[in-house]
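Consider the tokenized backbone below.
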């Protein structure tokens, strides 16, 4: 038996922009359906919103997203649930989850980091750590907290 776990992100009217941004970072194929495509009257508020969005890249990145019905105005980082910060060498957060992306090389992770950092709040810059040749944490422009790191070599 095989299962696949896919993170599903919820947005306030900007799911399409977020998915397109993530596609610019990770590549891949984007599939979306609007509420209007599934029967909502085209002139109803929110009909153009994403009811189903899936981004899959050949490298294995996979994320789903949709627009919360009735929620509009975009999803700025400040509006996302909770907060994350570094304090006295610790990560302090009340967010329910982070997205973690692990690459095999520092060069690969740096490419993703540079792209995700556009418009983001950096919590911890991408740098070598005791457990990884490269580790960093940021909250992107859509309010999603990301951890990026490089897989440590076998010891």
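A designed sequence for it:
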């Amino acid at each position: 038996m095989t299962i696949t776990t896919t993170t599903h992100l919820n947005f306030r009217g900007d799911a399409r922009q977020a998915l397109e941004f993530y596609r610019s970072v990770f590549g891949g194929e984007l599939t979306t359906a609007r509420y209007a495509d599934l029967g909502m009257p085209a002139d109803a508020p929110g009909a153009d919103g994403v009811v189903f969005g899936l981004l899959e890249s050949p490298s294995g990145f996979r994320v789903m997203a949709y627009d919360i019905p009735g929620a509009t105005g975009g999803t700025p980082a400040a509006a996302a649930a909770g907060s994350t910060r570094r304090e006295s060498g610790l990560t302090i957060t009340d967010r329910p989850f982070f997205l973690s992306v692990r690459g095999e090389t520092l060069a690969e992770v740096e490419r993703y980091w540079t792209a995700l950092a556009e418009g983001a709040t950096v919590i911890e810059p991408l740098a070598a750590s005791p457990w990884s040749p490269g580790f960093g944490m940021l909250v992107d422009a859509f309010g999603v907290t990301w951890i990026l790191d490089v897989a440590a070599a076998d010891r």
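The chain has two domains: 7-67, 77-150.
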